[in-house]
Design brief:
The structure holds two protein chains of two kinds. Chain A is built from five helices and five strands. The relative contact order of chain A is 0.18. Helix content of chain B is 65%, strand content 0%. Chain B is globular. The relative contact order of chain B is 0.11.
Chain lengths: 138, 325
């Protein structure tokens, strides 16, 4: 199975979600200056949303920095968007923005740190997804 | 006159270019960009819709809104100010003043709804009702007890997150319910603005709670966690009875309770804890979810082939320098 990469701010919601998945996952740095981790294999990105009422600023800067590097962006296979339905139309918007920009599917959306159902679905889904990916000849 | 040395401490001028916690500026920006006033919402477009509600539905709506007004008033005048002495940074204090003011805007908004749609006598009756309603008074007292100056700083934060992220929702349910039936849709737009603000408030106060909690030892952390769950149980108990007293007549109580469970779990997550209620009892009516966030009416799940669409469109030519979201 290939990689899982995520960003989680100090609130730790996405970090708790990734931890509960129980899969190997790489956390992007919390601060702007810190170096990006080495990513060498195809990966799925889990990204929380920070949009304002108009949807601006949805994707955290650190994620933009990651995806602005063409070799790393080329490894992105799908995105899982996180957020809070209380933000209405901008719920989990970061996932949609990244999907559009990078031409990858939004695989799933969840709220805050996710529910048991979310965890089970994403765990099973990723397994299936990577199975499909691997059967496609490079 | 010469400057005389005195014992009075003077606060330091706030410098927003020297942050101790980036989250303060992030939330300040979010809240200020999202600023709104009730005048922005064309409430008068709901006059006809209001007239089509049955008298008991009108009465319920006014009562629910006076209950929400009370919670906003508490948060405006007591809750947010009570958090200020415990602020860890001057920027946190500034954010709390914004939160306090927006709560005043929220409380004021309900009166805009009343003056647009309702008769003065009905509204006066509902305010009297809110002062006498035992459940409303009981939950307010439980929260106010924790806002006392003598209370533990982190218990104030727990109570505040429960008010922002849990207690409002027995009330917010009703305008979402009306909206899902194409009733009072402008009022629902206003409520959605309030919901959006409260989500940021609960998130931020919960974040500050987590930062303070991680500096305590294991025993203190456990004590606060136990306190949080125990307070949630007590509040839930009251909310259950409040919900029954309001919604039994419309046959909506069970539906509302699912919404309460769902929001109680989210409040706990804001504090960094796992949810308490199992997913089965958190399955909120899809019509309510859809009223809450129109694009999230379905559980998007690409893995299982459900959900809208594998719409990924064509790749946007990315200017790597200005990938400006």
């Amino acid at each position: 199975m290939a990689g899982l990469v995520y960003f989680s701010s100090g609130s730790g919601n996405t970090h708790r979600f990734a931890t509960r998945l129980g899969l190997a996952a790489t956390r992007l740095p919390l601060r702007h200056g810190e170096p990006l981790p080495q990513i060498l294999a195809p990966f799925v990105l889990i990204c929380p949303t920070y949009a304002d009422g108009q949807g601006r600023g949805a994707v955290p800067k650190q994620v933009i920095r990651l995806l602005n590097q063409p070799p790393l962006r080329a490894l992105l296979r799908g995105v899982i968007g996180a957020g809070n339905r209380n933000f209405g139309e901008t719920f989990a918007l970061a996932g949609d923005v990244i999907a559009r920009k990078c031409n990858v599917p939004v695989l799933y959306r969840f709220e805050l740190a996710g529910t048991e159902t979310d965890i089970a679905r994403v765990r099973a889904g990723l397994q299936k997804f990577w199975g499909t990916e691997c059967s496609i000849p490079a | 006159m010469r400057d005389l040395p005195t014992a009075r401490a003077v606060p330091r001028a706030i410098n927003w270019n020297r942050l101790q916690d980036d989250k303060d500026l992030e939330i300040w920006n979010r809240l200020t960009v999202n600023f709104w006033l009730p005048e922005k919402v064309p409430l008068s477009n709901d006059i006809q819709s209001w007239s089509q509600l049955k008298p008991e539905e009108q009465q319920l709506t006014i009562r629910v809104f006076t209950g929400l007004t009370l919670l906003d008033t508490i948060q405006n005048t007591v809750g947010a100010p009570a958090l200020m002495p415990d602020a860890q940074t001057p920027h946190e204090e500034a954010v709390l003043t914004n939160i306090a003011f927006m709560e005043a805007v929220h409380a004021r908004s309900y009166s805009s709804v009343f003056s647009t749609l309702c008769q003065t006598a009905e509204v006066d009756e509902a305010f009297r009702w809110s002062e006498e309603n035992e459940h409303l008074q009981a939950k307010s007292r439980l929260i106010l007890d924790e806002y006392d100056a003598a209370s533990h700083p982190l218990k104030k934060k727990i109570a505040s997150v429960f008010l922002e992220s849990f207690l409002f929702y027995s009330g917010f349910y009703l305008p979402m319910h009306w909206s899902s039936r194409a009733r009072l849709t402008n009022t629902a737009d206003l409520i959605r603005l309030i919901i959006r603000d409260e989500a940021v408030h609960g998130y931020y106060i919960g974040y500050k709670y987590q930062r303070a909690l991680e500096r305590l030892d294991g025993a203190q952390q456990q004590e606060l966690k136990d306190f949080a769950f125990s307070l949630l149980f007590d509040l839930y108990d009251i909310e259950g009875r409040y919900t029954e007293s309001l919604y039994d007549g419309l046959g909506l109580t069970e539906d509302v309770k699912h919404f309460l469970h769902y929001n109680a779990n989210k409040a706990l997550q804001n504090l960094g804890y796992e949810g308490l209620f199992p997913d089965e009892v958190c399955a909120v009516n899809p019509a309510i979810m859809s009223a809450l966030s129109p694009n999230a009416d379905e559980n998007h799940d690409f893995f299982s082939g459900s959900g809208s669409s594998y719409v990924i469109g064509k790749a946007v030519a990315t200017e790597d320098e200005d990938w400006d979201f």
